[in-house]
Amino acid sequence: MDQAIRSIEAAGRRLWPRNSQERAVERFYEPGVERYANYHGGMLNFGLWTGDVRDYPTASRNLVRRVARSIDLAPESRLLDVGCGMGAQDVLLARELGCNSIDGVDVTWKHVVTARKRAQEARLESRLRFHHGTAVDLSFADGSFTHIICIEGAEHFDTRRRFLAEAFRVLAPGGRIALTDFSMKRVPVTAFERLLAELGRRGWHVPRENVDTADGFRASIEHAGFRNVRIEEAGSDVIPGYYVRCMRSADSGSPARACGLMRSCSTCTAGAFSNTSSCRRKSRKPAVAITPARAFFSIASRGRTVSA
Ligand SMILES: C[S@@+](CC[C@H](N)C(=O)[O-])C[C@H]1O[C@@H](n2cnc3c(N)ncnc32)[C@H](O)[C@@H]1O
Predict the structure, then answer these.
(1) What separation in Å is there between the alpha carbon of 284 and the centre of ligand 1?
(2) Residue 108 CB less than 6 A away from ligand 1
(3) Could you tell me which residues are beta bridge partners of residue 79?
């Protein structure tokens, strides 16, 4: 193994305590990373299926670009990406927007290693740094960043509220944060709805406190101290497109089959988590179709100097 790869695989691994949420999430994502690291271009989001978007790579990049635009990312931004996954979105931001300084944090060690290799292959390692860590205890000084993004990770954090407090702390006054996240349309009413929501929550490793509605979500962001909070519902442009695409790859018998099935299940989970009442079973398909789930963009700023 060459020296550079050896140091990528050695630096900064943390061992999460037994029974911690961090350990459970890491074990959830770790299996098969070597096989899926480049599937979907290395992205793990559901994509944003607007306009004439027809394929997953376009949809996933569309989502990342939309998030970046919402907080005016620029070359001089000091960006923190929390729950950065395998770093593909950060390579995109560095290449397309010229972001010169991005720190990514992820709880899954294999994702961090993959992200570091990706940065190295793209010759961007001087601008992109990836850390093994947890969103709820960030190892950065107060006011270190001008911008934070968190794409489809916050539902896992123990808890989302603790993360938002940390995000507020490490963001400089006037800085901005953008999240894409999932919430429920309403509180489940029937026993069946409650059961589905609970199964989804557990299967997708979502702490009970993170199961919330959009109003609760807004309250959490404001409680952390953020102002100018804007929440946009994007559910109908997220889950249905992803679901259709996954079903195609699951049907194709390609190497993507297993991954397609897995992602379809996760689509169910996110959807059930979003709105249990909209589940319906499709006759010949191996998963439950959910339309539409609620996914959100939330944009907020720290302090009053920037309006979102
Ligand atoms: C659905 S993936 C999204 C990854 C990436 N943002 C993307 O869109 O490709 C969620 C990510 O959040 C990470 N994650 C979950 N809990 C975390 C925590 N407490 N701290 C940091 N990362 C966490 C997971 O390891 C996983 O990489």
Answers:
(1) 32
(2) yes
(3) 102, 147
> Tens digits of per-residue pLDDT, 290-301?
223 345 556 666
Distance CA 166, CA 168 (A): 5
- Confidence class of residue 233 from pLDDT cuts 50, 70 and 90? confident
Question: pLDDT tens digit string along 85-103?
Answer: 999 999 999 999 999 999 9
Centroid of ligand 1 to alpha carbon of 159 (angstroms) = 13
SS3 194: helix
Superfamily of domain 20-302: Vaccinia Virus protein VP39 (3.40.50.150)
Phi-psi group of 11: left, alpha or beta (phi > 0 → left; psi -120 to 50 → alpha; rest → beta): beta
- Beta strands of 195-248 (E only): which ranges? 226-233
User: Is 93 close to ligand 1, i.e. is its CB under 6 Å away?
Assistant: no
43 closest CA partner among 182, 154, 177, 151: 151
DSSP element (H, E) containing 128? strand 128-132
Torsion, CA 184, CA 24, CA 160, CA 79, rounded to 10? -120
Domain ranges for the chain: 20-302
Task: Establish whether residue 181 lines the binding site of ligand 1, counting it when its CB lies within 6 angstroms of any ligand atom.
Answer: no
